């Protein structure tokens, strides 16, 4: 094709006083140059459009990322708040476990005191050993029985961060405490039932045992055993205790029992005899008045008569005797309590 060999002359005139610059280009070069220019223009336009599109997409992605980041941070904050709440609840639960453990210790202590009160020997039982085990957060001072703290008192000190290991340990201790709580309570139940039965039996035994003073007066005028007879001045065996008082003072049954004698004799004057359990009897003599009658069921502390000076007596007093299987014994060891403190 001949057009490719055609020459085109270009003149460049910079100003009127400058020389004219001329250069020739073939038609082929012009066509190729035009094509290259068009391609470069197309590429530039495409690049610009892609850049604008990518910029828009990047902006949208940045916005989505910011939104997702905000949501994630909110989720993290909510999780942290929930973890803090759970940790606070765990601490409260641990304190409740410690309080329960202290109450169980108190129950065991009260059980021991109750046994001691009624004369039952206290041994190392399974419930005692279990209940004495420490609960979560028992301090070394608490373990030694020295220092205790009250939740309603003043608190203070530096707040230090809690490690994950410490929280895990507290969680395990609290979990183990509550897992074994049911077992410990089950172990305590039969022991408490045994104590209840033993106390009930002891109460029945105490009720029928003459353990109280038969009068309000505590003035003993003559003891049990050998003495000089006030009428003959000869050595005689005094079968009971003489308790001084005033005429009309009340006389109390020293234990639960049945009145088997209520009358008058030359030596004892007005007198009452009560039969108790286990072969024990109590005898009350020299009364000014008898208020009980044969066959009466009396309770410990019931009034059965009044102090007097009837029969073989030198003045107002109560002659009090205790007999076991028909033999007189010293009543003094039985005088352990008043009627009000029985």
TrEMBL record:
Record-linked CDD domains: M23_peptidase
Keyword Signal in annotation: yes
InterPro entries: Cell_wall_metabolism_enzyme, Dup_hybrid_motif, M23ase_b-sheet_dom
Alphabetical list of Gene3D superfamilies matching this protein: Glucose Permease (Domain IIA) (2.70.70.10)
Domain M23ase beta-sheet core: 237-331
Coiled-coil regions listed in the entry: 76-103
Keywords: Coiled coil, Signal
Molecular function GO terms recorded: metalloendopeptidase activity
Stretches the record annotates as Disordered: 121-162
Domain of life: Bacteria
SUPFAM superfamilies: Duplicated hybrid motif (SSF51261)
PANTHER family, sorted: L-ALA--D-GLU ENDOPEPTIDASE (PTHR21666:SF289), PEPTIDASE-RELATED (PTHR21666)
Name of the featured protein: Peptidase M23
């Amino acid at each position: 094709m001949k057009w490719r060999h055609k020459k085109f002359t270009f003149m460049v005139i910079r100003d009127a006083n400058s020389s004219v610059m001329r250069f020739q280009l073939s038609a082929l070069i012009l066509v190729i140059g035009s094509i290259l220019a068009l391609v470069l223009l197309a590429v530039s336009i495409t690049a610009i459009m892609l850049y604008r599109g990518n910029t828009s997409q990047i902006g949208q992605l940045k916005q989505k990322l910011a939104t997702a980041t905000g949501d994630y941070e909110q989720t993290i904050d909510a999780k942290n708040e929930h973890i803090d709440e759970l940790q606070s609840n765990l601490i409260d639960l641990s304190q409740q476990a410690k309080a329960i453990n202290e109450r169980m210790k108190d129950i065991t202590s009260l059980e021991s005191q109750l046994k001691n009160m009624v004369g039952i020997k206290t041994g190392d039982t399974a419930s005692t050993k279990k209940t004495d085990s420490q609960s979560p957060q028992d301090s070394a001072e608490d373990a030694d029985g020295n220092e205790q703290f009250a939740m309603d008192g003043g608190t203070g000190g530096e707040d230090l961060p809690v490690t994950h290991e410490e929280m895990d340990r507290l969680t395990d201790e609290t979990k183990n405490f509550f897992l074994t709580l049911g077992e410990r309570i089950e172990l305590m139940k039969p022991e408490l039932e045994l104590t209840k039965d033993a106390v009930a039996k002891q109460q029945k035994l105490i009720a029928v045992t003459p353990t109280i003073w038969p009068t309000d007066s505590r003035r003993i005028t003559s003891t049990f055993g050998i003495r000089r007879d006030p009428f003959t001045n000869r050595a005689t065996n005094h079968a009971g205790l003489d308790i001084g008082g005033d005429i009309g003072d009340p006389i109390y049954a020293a234990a639960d029992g049945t009145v088997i004698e209520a009358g008058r004799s030359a030596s004892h004057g007005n007198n009452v005899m009560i039969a108790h359990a286990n072969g024990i009897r109590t005898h009350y003599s020299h009364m000014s008045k008898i208020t009980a009658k044969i066959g009466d069921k009396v309770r410990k502390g019931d009034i059965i008569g009044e102090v007097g000076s009837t029969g073989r007596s030198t003045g107002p007093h109560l002659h009090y005797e205790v007999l076991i299987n028909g033999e007189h014994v010293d009543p003094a060891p039985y005088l352990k309590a008043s009627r009000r403190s029985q």
